[in-house]
Amino acid sequence: MMMKGGPTLRGFAALFSLDLDDPDLARAQFRSFSHQMPLLYIILVLNAFALMVDFYRPDSLVKTFVVPLIICVIGLVRARWWWRQDGAATLSDREIAHQIRRTCALAVMMTLAFEAWGFWIYDLGDAYARGHLTFFLALTQVSCVFCLMTMRAAAMRVALASTLTFVVYFSFVDQGQMLVEAIVLLFVGAGMMVVTYRFNIDFANLIRSQRNLRLRQAETEKLSEENRRIALTDALSGLPNRRKLLSCLGQLEASGTAKADTLAIVFIDLDGFKDINDAHGHHAGDTLIKSISARLTKICPEQALLARVGGDEFAILIDAPDATAMAQQLATRIGEEIGLPVLIDRHVLQVGASIGIASNSEGFVDANELLRRADTAMYHIKTRGKGEVAIYDPAFDEGRIRRLAIGREIGNGLANAEFEVFYQPVVSAQTGEIASAEALIRWPRRPDGPLDPQDFIDIAEGTGQIHPLGLFVLERACRDLKPFSRLKLSVNVSPAQFRDPGFERQVAHVLEQTQFEPHRLQLEITEGYLLAQPERAIRAIERFKAMGMSIALDDFGTGFTSIHYLQSYGFSHIKIDKSLLSGLQPGSKASLLVTGTIYLASGLDMRVIAEGVETEQQAEILREAGCHKLQGYLFGHPMPIAEFREAYEAQPESLRQAIIGPPPAPKSPALRSFARKSA
Ligand code: C2E
Ligand code: CA
Ligand code: CA
Predict the structure, then answer these.
(1) Is the same domain home to 254 and 354?
(2) Which of 226, 249, 548, 553 could cross-link to 574 by cystine, CB 3.0-4.6 Å?
(3) pLDDT tier at 560 (50, 70, 90 boundaries)?
């Protein structure tokens, strides 16, 4: 290479050396000159042929015919060989290096051989032919160098070797008559070498920058591929995410090949996941999601795409014949699998799953619509009981639309003070005195007409509006009942409120604001929450009790809880559900069940309230069984505070002053011993 500050000997020598260190450059050089090589050989052959015709002498057959013929044949063979090379596509780096070396040697040999032949026959020609010969030799030399231009070493070697031999020979031949030609060619040769050198630097730079561009392009592609992968993957589970699912659905739709019953979506929503997250922290929640993802992946068939589409939501896209049947089988299997308990951070955790299925069993369904239907079917299951599987039915939509509308109305209702609190008296079973009041929400000022609590409470739970709604009831009830200093107050608390870590603080705040005595407040909770979160429920109940409040188990008898099990929670009261009272007649099975329950609970230090008491007969049986308090239409419907005050004040003074004594002992001796044993 040319050194900085001028050529040195080593630098000059380097101009002629083969540099095969850079395989990309070698390949590019090879590709470039391999296209020129046939041309180079054809020029050589044509020039040899022209000289052969010019110099032909029958008496010098070897010199003027055989040798040029051999040169022509070799030239043609080589031209054909190069012609058949398709650049460098099929050759390895080593083969290319080998070819370059060979070409370098061969090019020099061929030019020298041609020149040597030229010098050899020079004497045979007249002045005219000699002029031709010099011209052809010089022409061959120049065209060879230009054809080999991209291969510096070969071009330089050819240029140097042919120029030197030419100059030396023609400086002396014919008594120096050709000296001018020799000198001209010397300059031409030097000029060609400079051009070759410069051209090669540019060529190498071009190849290098092309390579850099390629590398950068590859890098960019790799990066964007990685970005794409990240964008379509859920970071926690490593599963495809919602975007990926939608894109797959979109592709299926675009392909337009979906025949009837070839596509189904199984939509899975975990039940009780939020509770686990709240109770055990996000780490436990994350671990659970990972564990469930792994288990779902294992049971997913090959034709299915499993995606995590939300915090605790998964969807499986099935693209196979008989998709609906496959989805149903899969859903059942998933229900079983998800229900299995897992050990996380030394806790045995368990969740359930509400599963919805939608398919194109009836024919074409738009991709997004399919996902929406599966989601709707899941939602339908979620709102009634959870833990099951539903296949989409158009009727589900109506229910959902109505629920959405009510959700919106609740928001407006809170803002516009459309809600009201009614109070239902709870009387002492023995004295008939109003011992407490249950606060029940009402929606009298709803623009579309009043709605029963059971038609909007669970919607409010779903939307989270139960929190402001519940606090509104608590605060209003504390204010309303504050003046009834002997009266206790029962307020319903939904599981969502009880789960809320801020709930305790909010209750304490309301008590402080309203100056309501904590020991007068009873919170009613239902069984559902206890079963899902036993440890957490126990801790929360303990804290409320420590604040002075009491906790009642509402709707007892509708679930599966045994009384023994309840004792561990520390309830002070249980409320027997009104459904248990419907068949309450002397000697009936229902009355045995209810009285047995009362005795057991009493034996375990819990007081019993019976709700839904409508007849004197029911009240009598309950009193007889030792029930402590009674609530129901027999004693009063839920009513506005003004009406309640009237009813309370209408009680004879003696009754209002009565102090509710200790629970009466069971009257039947058999039940008495039963209760003792159970205790
Ligand atoms: P619940 O807690 O079991 O309340 C008792 C329900 O039984 C009330 O219905 C009450 O009107 C009704 N009831 C009372 N006595 C009788 C009777 O003798 N016969 C019959 N058939 N029914 C009787 P309501 O007010 O419609 O409330 C229904 C449910 O809505 C409540 O059941 C409770 O779970 C929920 N709820 C009501 N208010 C609230 C609230 O402020 N917060 C929460 N979280 N839930 C509430
Ligand atoms: Ca209640
Ligand atoms: Ca109840």
Answers:
(1) yes
(2) 553
(3) low
Whose alpha carbon is nearest atom 7 of ligand 1? 612
Query: For the chain, what is the domain count?
Result: 3
Q: How far, in Å, CA of 132 to CA of 54, rounded? A: 8
Pairing of β 573-576 and β 420-428? unpaired
- List, for residues 400-442, the tens digit of each pLDDT value: 888 889 999 999 999 999 999 999 999 999 999 999 999 999 9
CA of 424 relative to ligand 1 center, distance in Å = 9
Pocket test for ligand 1, best of 463, 525, 611, 637 (most atoms within 8 A of CB): 611
Report CA(423)–ligand 2 centroid distance (Å): 11
Domain span at 110: 12-215
Residues with CB under 6 A from ligand 1: 424, 440-441, 452-454, 457, 470, 473, 492-494, 554-555, 578, 611-614, 632-633, 638
163 part of a folded domain = yes
Is 413 part of a structural domain of the chain?
no
| Residues 434 and 374 both lie in one domain | no
Q: Are residues 491 and 429 in the same domain?
A: yes
- Reported as a single tens digit per residue, the pLDDT across 313-359 is 999 999 999 999 999 999 999 999 998 888 888 888 888 999 999 99
- Ligand number nearest to the C-alpha of 556: 3
Q: 503 with 626, same domain?
A: yes
CA distance 557 to 548: 27
Same domain, 188 and 87: yes
Condensed to tens digits (0 to 9), the pLDDT of residues 19-40 reads 888 888 888 888 888 888 888 8
Looking at 252-261, 297-306, 605-614, which range is the least confident one?
Answer: 252-261
| Distance in Å from the first CA to the final CA of the chain | 104
Separation of 538 CA from ligand 3 center, angstroms? Answer: 20
Same domain, 35 and 171: yes
Q: Are residues 316 and 450 in the same domain?
A: no
Q: How far is the CA of 543 from the centre of ligand 1 (A)?
A: 26
Q: Which long-range contacts (CB under 8 A, 24 or more apart) does 618-624 make?
A: 618/581, 618/584, 619/429, 621/584, 621/585, 621/586, 621/591, 621/594, 621/595, 622/429, 622/584, 622/594, 622/598, 623/429, 623/430, 624/595, 624/667
Residue 230 included in any domain: no
Atom of ligand 1 nearest to the CA of 466: 44
DSSP string, 305-320: EEEEEETTEEEEEEES
State whether 590 and 656 are in the same domain: yes
Residue 309 forms part of a structural domain: yes
